[in-house]
Design brief:
This protein is mainly beta. The chain has seven helices and 36 strands.
Length: 606
């Protein structure tokens, strides 16, 4: 009778065992014998390991527009191993330069479009970079060949408002905008909804197929546009949120099919405050307006079937301007309160030693300057336990400088539920010294908002606020003042050198020795800073828990809700004083910085 051992058990039992092991244990098991190595280094085992990484909201570093199903077994093993190294390096410690990432070097220097100043950078796979310039061009840059291979240029100054990549369709969708005339509710803007498509190379041809731009729809809006969203490219569905100043409410502009000359433009009756954060999301046949206030989030549902009854015909005439047709309230609204942590003592130190006199004028939507107005709206804040910690940033001196609502954009598996993430950069400006300091807030949420209550469910990781709460100074660059800005009497726009991806944030930071330091900003020392958001694992639709990797839940059930900010190494030839744009791609483990000398630095970390 043979002695039972792992080497002679049935494969289905061995496969079941591997599903309970992490990658480190898989390595250890493979090292015990050649037979087990061959038995475990198989597609089913590594597909499950890939699914585990995806459940932890970690992108796989795929090449080009590959899908997981396109990979051979050896390629899948390499991708999973690389993703695990990135997760360990980016989440548990300071990321280190990835040696030999670019042949012999850990970074690559590429050119940017000649005679242009980059206003925005967006990586598309590891091989392409989309560069929007201050003159209104959008250029697709081949990083490996170091040349521009496609360009969008309508010969006038346009501004890129929004972009979204759809890997399944091998396409980046973006909207270009320019102001035609007017202000506030009579502001007329022209938009070009555009795509850049990356053709799939055929196996029987060596010809290089370059991407190409094409305009999908030209349209106009009336009012102050807060943002536009391509909700469903396959259904050709686009939505935009507008600020209606006369009623201080939110307008919803929808193209139910951007191939048709028709639109929907309604007043949602949802009140807009100066500190509200907004996003537009498609969920189960409804457009969901996701609203975040200081202590809670609320989601308002507008079914497409209801919106279709309010369609108005448009036309491409130069004189045509869309008009709001009706006030339509959401069919349902749900809300859920945030859970706030008890912050460390160093967070309670005031950002400035000198007292600040509260300024009654702040920037509202679209940088309009007006007195603070708190609308009399029903209090939708869910009832919470009086013993829970309060919002530490409820002081109106902290103003939301920017808000990013992030989705999991990367290729995944059908069985993996998706999670969403909100990142808010709060700022406080000293009225006498003009120094601005920042804190960072982040949390995860679902659509629709999950019904579980994090106050009573200690394992629920959604709606729990996480912070970089020790104030810091982000480097900002001034955008050019246009004739429209001068006419509107608007101050120059300050653009923060700050970027986020689903699991991380990176920014350029001033190094200040003391609040009284007189060194001018342009000569002050700078550093590249980085932080990872808490690691989570999606257990089921609408439910996530802490992953146990990096920041997150402790063994005693408590939650670590303060980020550890780290300083990234940079090449000696990179002068941080010359940086004018920054971005990152967590799937490839890279940070991209463009500099004024017409170059971009692509830094690889692991």
């Amino acid at each position: 009778m043979s002695v039972p051992s792992l080497q002679n058990i049935p494969y289905d039992i061995l496969l079941s065992i591997t599903h309970h092991l992490d990658l480190a244990n898989i390595y250890a098991l493979q090292s015990t014998s050649k037979l087990l190595r061959y038995a475990i280094r198989t597609r089913p085992v590594y597909r499950e390991l890939a699914a585990t990484l995806l459940r932890r909201c970690r992108a796989l570093p795929l090449h080009g527009f590959n899908h997981i199903s396109d990979l051979s077994t050896d390629q899948l093993v390499e991708v999973v191993n690389h993703a695990a190294r990135l997760e360990r390096g980016w989440v548990t410690r300071t990321p280190r330069p990835a040696l030999n990432a670019f042949s012999k070097y850990w970074y690559k220097v590429a050119r940017t479009p000649p005679d242009e100043e980059v206003d925005w950078l967006f990586p598309i796979t590891a091989g392409y970079m989309i560069c929007a310039t201050k003159s209104g061009k959008v250029v697709c840059w081949d990083v490996h060949r170091d040349v521009g291979i496609a360009e969008w240029n309508h010969g006038e100054r346009w501004e890129l408002l929004w972009a979204q990549v759809e890997f399944e369709r091998r396409t980046l969708y973006f909207t270009m905008a320019k102001v035609l005339r007017g202000r506030d509710d009579e502001k007329v803007m022209q938009f070009e909804l555009t795509q850049i498509h990356f053709p799939e190379q055929t196996s029987d041809s060596d010809e290089q197929l370059d991407p190409y731009f094409s305009t999908l729809r030209s349209f106009k809006t009336l009012g102050v546009v807060m943002n536009l969203f391509t909700l469903d490219p396959e259904a050709r569905l686009l939505a935009g949120l507008m600020w209606i100043s006369r009623s201080d409410s939110i307008g919803l502009y929808v193209l139910l099919d951007w191939n048709k000359e028709e639109y929907v433009f309604i007043d949602t009756a949802i009140q807009c405050t100066d500190t509200s954060k907004w996003a537009c999301i498609l969920c189960d046949g409804s457009i969901v307006i996701h609203l975040e206030e200081a202590t809670f989030a609320c989601q308002h549902f507008f079914p497409l079937s209801v919106l279709s009854h309010h369609v108005t015909v448009s036309n491409p005439s130069p004189s045509f301007v869309p008009r709001m047709t009706t006030r339509l309230k959401p069919t349902r609204s749900i809300s859920r309160g945030f859970i706030f942590p008890v912050l460390p003592p160093e967070s309670n130190v005031l950002p400035f030693r000198q007292p600040i006199v509260h300024n009654i004028l702040i920037a509202g939507p679209a940088n309009q300057i007006h007195p603070i107005v708190v609308p009399q709206v029903p209090d939708l804040t869910p009832l919470t336990d009086v013993n829970t910690p309060p919002n530490p940033w409820s002081d109106r001196l902290w103003y939301p400088k920017s808000a990013d609502f992030l989705r999991q954009w990367w290729p995944t598996l059908p069985s993996i539920p998706r999670l969403r993430c909100s990142v808010v950069l709060f700022s406080q400006r000293h009225p006498h010294t003009n120094v601005t300091k920042y804190v960072l807030a982040q949390h995860y949420f679902t659509v629709p908002l999950s019904a579980s209550n994090a106050e009573t469910d200690a394992s629920d990781a959604t709606m729990r606020m996480w912070y970089v709460s020790v104030p810091f100074e982000v480097v900002c660059v001034s955008d050019e003042v246009t004739e429209d800005d001068l006419t509107a009497d608007s101050p120059p726009r300050q653009r923060s050198l700050f970027a986020v991806d689903f699991g991380h944030a990176v920014w350029l930071e001033h190094v200040r020795i003391a609040d009284e330091e007189e060194e001018p900003y342009e000569r002050r020392q700078k550093r590249l800073r980085f932080v990872s958001f808490p690691g989570v694992r999606v257990e089921s639709e609408g439910y996530a828990v802490w992953s146990g990797i990096g920041g997150g839940g402790g063994p005693d059930g408590t939650f670590e809700m303060e980020g550890t900010v780290r300083t990234l190494a940079i090449p000696e030839e990179l002068d941080l004083h010359e940086v004018n744009e920054i971005n990152l791609d967590q799937s490839q483990g890279i940070v991209i910085l463009s500099v004024r000398q017409g170059k971009m630095f692509i830094l690889s970390y692991e």
